[in-house]
Fold this sequence. Notes:
This protein is an alpha+beta fold.
Amino acid sequence: MDNLLFRGASIDEFNFGRTMKSGAGIKLTTSIKYSVRCVAEKHLLLGDAIITISDAGDEGLFRMKFHHLGTFSYEGEIESDEERRRLHVETAHLLQPLWNQTVAMFCAVAGIPPVLLPPYRVSEEQIRMGGDRA
């Protein structure tokens, strides 16, 4: 579907906690849970991401979590599971730079070096959980 148009994004929720002392070493782990909901009557796709960055050994030392929502419009109908998969991947690909900018901005505010999220990997489970079907 070549007629996908990015409409905007919002951060609906942000949580941050840091109890580590300055200079303490931590090993960060990241998690991206992403689904795409379709609002067929309005021709909208909502890319819904929960992104978590935390210390691998003790989440209490460092944790950053935010809920990011990207909005896209499209023309036509989503007629197949293959098309749904492609849209899932495309919307995530378009939102990934925004996710990284958001994480970098919050890292700067928290006084820590920026964290770069790994490329998003699509899982079939997340596609199936994608909300309303078109």
